[in-house]
Amino acid sequence: MSNIRVSSHPLVAHKISILRNKNTKPKQVRELMREIGQLLGYEATADLPTKVTFNLESPLTSYTGTELATRIGLVPILRSGLSFVDALEDMVPTARVLHLGIFRERISLQPVEYYNKLPSEPNVDQVIVLEPMIATGGTAVAATSILKDWGIKSKIKFITICASRQGLENLMKHHPDVEVFVGVIDDILDDHG
Length: 193
Description:
The protein is α/β, with parallel strands linked by helices. The protein has five helices and eleven strands, in the order βααβββαβββββαβαβ. Helix 3 links the parallel strand 4 and strand 5. Helix 1 packs antiparallel against helix 2 and helix 2 packs across helix 3. It is globular and about 60 Å long.
């Protein structure tokens, strides 16, 4: 699973430890989700292509400006993925937010698409899917398939706080070109996925 990037950042590990504590209060959970999302987002955006813009003036000298060379789309998987949107928009204010609603059916654990607000034609060059947890991987596989069918040709990236090894293997089996930035990987899944 060479496209899986487990964060080695000490702040990510520290914040995930607090997030996973059963005694953490809801307000702190929301704050931690945003903070971890931003840290993982920083790692996921490290290789975005840039282009030279034009000469600018600082108080001391002139310099050549730089801007992102691709149009970025943020795709939160509703609703939990919304917890990352503000953090990523702060980092990439020009990013477009594209919503997908997919839930896992309780008995079969299969993904069901219930909401899709993608435009008829892609208006972004690259997407970052925001999904705080990858359990069985079914939702991640479905979201990736939807985005590829929509016309995304470049690398699709996922930002997730916690993923199961089984879910990542499932995603890589169906979409080996996807890159996943994850805070922690769990080795087991329970009967409920």
